[in-house]
Structure formats: structure tokens, C-alpha cells
Amino acid sequence: MRFVVQRDLLIESIQHVMKAISSRVTIPILTGIKIEASKDGIKLTGSDSDISIESFIPKEEDGIINVEEIETGSIVVQAKYFPDIIRKLPLKTVEIVTDDQFQVTILSGGSEFHLNGQDAVEYPQLPVLHTDNSFELKNDLLKELIRQTVFAVSTVETRPILTGVNMRLENDQLDFVATDSHRLASRKIPLSTENDQLDFDNIVIPGKSLAELNKIIDDNEETIMISVTENQILFQTKNLYFLSRLLDGNYPETSRLIPDQSKTTVLTKTKELLQAIDRASLLAKENRNNVVKLQTKANNQLEISSNTPEVGQVTEEVTTDTIEGEELKISFSAKYMIDALKIIQEDRVKIEFTGAMRPFIIRPMDNEQILQLILPVRTY
Amino acid sequence: MTRWYPKNGRVIFHVDMNSFYASVEAAYNPDLKGKPLAIAGNPEERRGIIVTSSYEARAKGVKTTMPLWQAKKLCPELIVMRPNFERYRKASSEIFKMMAEITPYVQPVSIDEGYLDITDCHEQGSPLEIAEQLQAKILNELDLPCSIGIAPNKFLAKMASDMKKPMGITVLRKRDLPQKLWPLAIGEMYGVGEKTAEKLNKLDIYTIGDLVGSDLFQLKRVLGINGERLQNRAKGIDSSPVDPDAIYDFKSIGNSETLREDTTDDNVIKPLFRKLSRKVSVRLKRKKVVGQTLQVMIRYDDRKTITRSITQSNFLEEEDEIFSLAYDLFEKHWSGDPIRLLGVTVQSLVEKKEISEQLDLFSYQKETKNEKLIDVMNKLTSKYGKNIFQKSEVQEDRSQPRTSFQKDFLDDYRK
């Protein structure tokens, strides 16, 4: 195998596939990057067997030559050294040559590396998904769906299914839901597709996979193809192939746990509330659960306070647009509230409470697509 | 009176009740006075060992932790009684109340000993007078003997109280150390157990005086930081304060029990876990604390002991939660060999009023059943101030705790 490639393109591809590579894998060869040269270009592969990523560098794109002097072949290089070498090479291009002893020679300007490689035949074959169970989304919309939900997945393995994001398709609505059982984030989008065959409900994508995917795909209006099988999901763009295992098990039914009536409704400016909670939480960091207290007052005032006896106490007054319904005093985690408010782009939010011991709902005003739910904290 | 007190430095008492349980029994029943008396666990069971004994019994060679049959052999006329913890608890509480009348700086160490810092008590008399009055008061009002050590720090006070028993008052000043302290065998030193004594003997340290003169570097190599602490104490240096709250700094609450016979029988094991969990739960509630870590101890028939623990996000307090978690943990780690002893402990405790509990989406509906009550309570609290409500005390557990958990008894002497 031999080729000369634009170094910055190679670096980008390496960064993509590295997202799937872990040093703790059961199959040792998976600690390496597979490189394949074909007449169309160069393909890099990384995998930890949960996530597999392929990144393709086409030989030629929009009339610009990316890869030259291709002699086809393949090799697996050690991911521990290869990325740093490529990043630090002196020239804009790099030449990579292998011999039949699986020796890799890396040439750029005056530098010459010889690296021990492994036979690519040893590298596990990635499953090829044969399915018509596919639909398309715009890159930026998918990123939004991920960003607005994935932060709420559970980070502990006590209920493994909660470490994933639940993806559902119902009545031409695509719904992403994540919860760690203390808060829940949900985002719906309308999805009209010509594909009558499209059929899945209740699949659970590992939160880690989505977080990595979000880092790799560009924030643009190009489309990404999403294919679902029984135990895997594939995200595919022109030059990227991102395959993830799905989580086993049934995602708990959450919709019936979401209150459908409100006893106290607050309408207020998103940013002002966010900043007030952020300040109040400065003193709450010491206490468990990072608790702040919210209290409705007369004249549409909200009082947010926190008291940590060893540190001190803080009171924040927020002037809201309206407060309707019963008086309320409730305690909750400032962190969950900040997480929820941060992903809301709209100027104003509506918060609906149904009592101090029940979950409350945060939505952007006039936008039913986003729903954030937080369970309060009980103080003794 | 100030002339009896040091210009710089402290005056510390260590009050040590003399064969406390036996003395309390004798106070209840004067017929027992002057007779060899021992308090022991259930004689028919394996844990039938001597908990404490009167001086008359000790004179015959009866010792604490000795099996009952052995004690009977040494002293056939020995009177054996089961422990009567309610009595001891009451007596202890009275004693600490008397100490608290002298100074607020009282540090209970166990049910029958405590430290007092009387540095600022010169208006009440010289240290010796205060000690004599306290000793006399405990004897006259409770009919209980004690020994008191008077010294410039806690360690020396502790050593001093040990020097004359029963009914001794011993003053140990720094200038007395070469004659009174240093000739003692190293094993006599408070803080030096059997293992430590062995290690020190290997360094040719046989008396407390040897420890004073030993090489610090070598000591630290063998005993770590504790080596330095011990040497300092031997030199008469101990700056630890008399801390009235030290007794409240408990980090865990646990119960353990030795089985009648070694067993692998689930019909024995499971009920024992149930019982231990209940006891731990009762004690947690009594102390108004909760914890997130649960530890299970398993001792096998070959005395090999393992402990395994699990930490979780919600707080443990209820018997059922403790039981199911403990039993799970046990099943996961039990080797299947016969078991001699089981223990259940809840660790990393925090006071209940300091914590807040994050509600859970999948279980909050369970919590809301008391919602109205809590709502009313909150309204009244904000109207009339904190503490108008106290959860009614849990039913006092009259079962008799084992000796290692005596510290619970000391909670209420200041009430």
C-alpha cells in the first residue's frame, strides 16, 4: 500500500475514528487504526466494538486532489503513536508506504518514521447494515436533538438502560428522551418521510455514542442518513459511517410520569432566571445535591435562595412576566435547572409546577417541541 | 486557689469507674458487696464470656473476656449475673451529669470513663479538692467507686487513673514521669496493644522509658506516624483537647452477632440479617442520622473475616432497605463456608437535618402520599419558627445492645 495525502485531511479523519478507539478493549487489534487505500481514496476505521467509525478521504473532491499516487492495500497502525506522528510532521503532505512485513513508513519532508503495523486481515469485519429502515435528517437538526437531550442521561450503571437516549417514532413525530431519573429532557420534531416501511419504536442509543457523534458531524444543512436494525444504528454522511450498538432492554414508559396539569405557572426571561440560579448556586456547591430554593412572592416576584450554614447565604429576586396559581416554595438542584435552561434558545420560558414534591416542567414559551422536567429535592 | 494551677497549660481529669457493671449491681443489691461477682453474657451460649468482674473476683484471677467455665474453675463461688444495661446506662448518665456540673468540658469516652478539663475551675478549689469532692459525691450518691487521674494532658491523666484502683486519686506531673511512668512495661501504656508491644520489643523497647529514648526514625519506620505520637506521649506530650463532642463524631452504626453454632443454613442466616438490620435501623433513627454506605461483615468458622460494602445514592435508614441491601451483598460475597459471625454496618453517616433528598421520577408518586401533611407542617413552621415539630421518637428498643455499642448510651447525659 502506498499513497500521498493532504496532511490536514488525514488529521481530521484520524480525529474522527479516534472517538471510537479505547485502550481498554478485549480484542487487542482494536487499539489500532485500520487504513485502507482503494482507487477511490483512503478509508480509516476505529472501533471499540460498541461504536465503530469509518472516515473516508475521497481521492478527488470538487476538483481538488486529496490523495495521490495510490497503490491499493491495507494496514493497521497503533493508535497510540500514529496520530501524534501525523500531527507533528513538517510538510502539508505525507506519504505512507507499507511493505509485506507490515512495516509502515511515514515520510514528510526530511522526517522518516518506521512503525510496526499489523495485518489488516486480522481486523474484525464491521457489520454491513442491510436495511431499508432508514430516514434522513439535516445535520444541524440532529445535533440539536442530541444537544438538547443527551446531557440528561444517567452516568451511573445502576439502571443501564438510562445511560441511553430513547428514540421513538410516533405519528410522524421523532422523539428523543433522556432521563437519569432525577430529570428528564425531551425533544420532538416532525418527521415526514416517504418511507412507509420505516418502523421502530423504543430504541435506546447509548448516550456516549450520541455525544461522540455530535462532536464529529459538522453543524450544517447537509443530510445524514439514519438506519436502524434490531441491535444497531447507523449514521451515514458522504464520508462518514458511524455505527453504534443499541442498548438492550425496554426503556421505561415516561410519558405517564409527566404531570399534565399545573398548579403554579411562571413565565419569565430565560437568561435572567439562568443567571440568578447560577449565582445562587455559587454557595450551594458545598451542600449535597447543589440545592437552591425557589419561592413565589407577590407582584410577580420570584425569590431564589440558598443557605449553606458554614459558608453563607444568598437571595436573588427575579421579576417575572407573570406568576399564576398557587403560592409555592420548592427546592431543587441548581445544576439540573442550569442544564435545562442552557439548552433553551428562546427568550422566555414557561415553568409549570404541581407542588413541592412533584416534578415540574420547563418549556420555551410557545414551543411544545422541547420539554425539560426536574424532580425537586425534599429537605428535612 | 490559682496557685494550684499551672500558669501555662491545662489540668485534666480522667475519671475511671472501678469495675463499673459489677459495682452498679452491688449498689442495687448490697448483699453482693465484698463477694466475687462477674457480669457475663448468656452462659449457655458461646458468647458467655466475662464482661467485667468485681475486685474480689479479680483477686482470684478472673479476667475480662475469660470464658465463663474458666472463671468458675478459678473461683467456684463466683456469682454470675447477666448484664443489665438499663441500670448501667442510668448510672452512667448520673455520673456524667455530676461531671458536667464542674465544667462543660467533659468528654465521655465510654459508658464508664471520661475526661474533664478543669483548667478554668480554680474558683471551685484546687484540683485535688475538686477530685476528692467528685469522687466522694459519686460514692455517696450512687454508691459507686471510681479512680481519678490528674495530669497536664489526657494521656497522662489516663495513665494516672490506672495507677491506683479502686478509689484512687493520682496526680501525675511531668516531673514525676521518670519515677512513676517510665519504669512501666511498654504494654501498660495506653495506646499500645499486644501487636504494637511485640513490634516495640523487637526494637529493644520494653519499658515506657525505653520508648522515650528510642530512635524516632526507627520508630516511624515500624509504626508510622503513630510511632511519633506514642513517643511524644511517653515524654508527657499530648495536646489533644478534651472535646465534649468527640462522642458524637461517630462515622458508622453497626451491629454484629456471633451465631450459636457455625452455620450455612439460610433459615438461620436470613433471620439474623433481618434482626441486625432492625437494630441498625432503630439506632440510626434514635440518632437521627442516615448513611449511604452499607457494610456487611462475614466471619467464617476458621476466623477468617471479610467485609464488603456498597455505596448508593439514596440514604439508608429503614430496616427493609438495609436488610435487602445487606442480604444481597452477603449472597454476592458468601463463599458458602460455615459462618460464625455476621455484622451489618451503615457508614458515612450524616445528620438527617443536614441532608436533602433528590426525588426520583420513578418513585416520586410514593413520596407524595404525605404531601398534604408536609405542606401543613411547612406552613406552620414558617409561621411559628423551626422545631415546632419533632418526629415522634421511635419506640425505644429494650433489647440489650452488645458491649461494643455502649457509646449510644452517652447521648443523653446533658439532657
From TrEMBL, chain A:
Residues 136-253 form the DNA polymerase III beta sliding clamp central domain. Residues 256-378 form the DNA polymerase III beta sliding clamp C-terminal domain. GO terms for molecular function: 3'-5' exonuclease activity; DNA binding; DNA-directed DNA polymerase activity. InterPro entries: DNA_clamp_sf, DNA_polIII_beta, DNA_polIII_beta_C, DNA_polIII_beta_cen, DNA_polIII_beta_N. Pfam families: DNA_pol3_beta, DNA_pol3_beta_2, DNA_pol3_beta_3. Residues 1-127 form the DNA polymerase III beta sliding clamp N-terminal domain. The keyword Cell membrane does not apply. It is found in: Cytoplasm. Its main location: cytoplasm. One of its GO terms (biological process) is DNA strand elongation involved in DNA replication. Belongs to the beta sliding clamp family. Confers DNA tethering and processivity to DNA polymerases and other proteins. Acts as a clamp, forming a ring around DNA (a reaction catalyzed by the clamp-loading complex) which diffuses in an ATP-independent manner freely and bidirectionally along dsDNA. Initially characterized for its ability to contact the catalytic subunit of DNA polymerase III (Pol III), a complex, multichain enzyme responsible for most of the replicative synthesis in bacteria; Pol III exhibits 3'-5' exonuclease proofreading activity. This is Beta sliding clamp. It comes from Natronobacillus azotifigens. The gene is dnaN.
UniProtKB/TrEMBL annotation, chain B:
The keyword Protein biosynthesis does not apply. Belongs to the DNA polymerase type-Y family. Monomer. Its EC number is 2.7.7.7. Transmembrane segments: none annotated. Keywords: Cytoplasm, DNA damage, DNA repair, DNA replication, DNA-binding, DNA-directed DNA polymerase, Magnesium, Metal-binding, Mutator protein, Nucleotidyltransferase, Transferase. This is DNA polymerase IV. GO terms for biological process: DNA repair; DNA-templated DNA replication; error-prone translesion synthesis; SOS response. Mg(2+) binds at D16, D112. Residues 12-193 form the UmuC domain. The record marks Y21 as: Substrate discrimination.
